[in-house]
Amino acid sequence: LGMSENFGLAFYKSQEAASASLPDLPEEGKVKKVLISLSEKVHQAKDAVEVGRGFHKMGFSILATEGTAAFFQKEGIPCEVIAKLNEGRPNVLDVILNKEVCLAINTPSAKKDVIKDEAAIRQAVIKYKVPYITTLAAAKAAVQGILASSKGKGSVKSIQEFHKEIR
């Protein structure tokens, strides 16, 4: 289900098996948007920069909430600011409901005022079948997986064949 010699491709396949397929690279001239909202705690992680840069380099447009957008822009990662639920419209829920994003990344925050927003986002992505990532590690793996899958999905092997290779 999620097996490959390449970690990124294995992650990509695992998401397909879980009915949460990651998007393919945008075709030339076409726009694919990724929604990214990272908790303040995550902004300090270098992996957050890798995720933002990775999606940008692959040709995705990034929609980011205010704090994440400020962080990305400081790091030289282009993005468009999207409002949180209580900040007006269009907001994060609107872009999910209108199927404007092909992936949503939202790392949980410990702040009580955003817990309701996070729950509403999770409900919307499930209802509208938008792939959803809640950890920085999975977001980084998604970048690796999308890139790896663009080079080929690998060959089909039985588990016995994989087992022979690791002996």
What can you tell me about this protein's structure?
This protein has 167 residues and is an alpha/beta fold. The chain has one domain: Rossmann fold, CATH 3.40.50.1380. Helices cover 46% and strands 11% of the residues. It contains seven helices and five strands. It has a five-stranded parallel beta sheet, with helices on both faces. Helix 3 links the parallel strand 2 and strand 3.
Task: Just name the CATH architecture.
Answer: 3-Layer(aba) Sandwich
CATH class: Alpha Beta
Low-confidence stretches: none
> Helix- and strand-based class?
alpha/beta
Number of strands: 5
Q: What's the number of domains?
A: 1
Helicity, as a percent range: 40-55%
